[in-house]
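Internal tracking record. Fields below are filled automatically when a chain is submitted to the structure queue. Please do not edit lines marked as system-generated. If the sequence contains nonstandard residues, flag them in the REMARKS field before resubmitting.
Queue: standard
Priority: normal
Entity type: single polypeptide chain
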Amino acid sequence: MRRVSVIGNAGSGKSTLARALAARLGVPQVELDGIYHQPGWSPLAKGELVRRVGEAAAGDGWVMDGNYSAVRQLIWSRADTVVWLDLPRRLVMRRLIWRTIRRLIRRTELWNGNREPWGNLVRWDPQMSIIAWAWHQHAVYQQRYAAAVLDPAWEHLRFIRVTSPRDVRTLLDRAGRSPTGS
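SYSTEM-GENERATED OUTPUT FOLLOWS
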């Protein structure tokens, strides 16, 4: 396990797991949101996103977290492992709502000067609220990644489906046991 893609719903703990896994494996963490979300929440142009992610994916080892379909093929063609955070919706939503509230209160900078918008708490448009997005995308991600596990195009990948906080701890414990994380 040297090149790992961490995927899952918003609020499932992708970045937290990726950070911990990267530290145990001794490789860089690449947070796709940090590349994509430019100042003022402006999206990075697709060509530039592909270029930057391609540079990161060319490395010998990394842990990348995010679900960007524009670069999934690129990442997965280089990855050896995909960790799919498939936690229960109620757990994801609880974590996401509390995370959003904490970030709002603390005015935490996320990426490139961006901060959590208040609309995340009060809007129900998935394009305007990460909470609404996570609610609506939960089943979409489950279907998408369940299909990917069975897709022969990805047979070179080791898929690890994580369905509980206990699974997360087990994964991290195992990754910390050997220099290669295998």
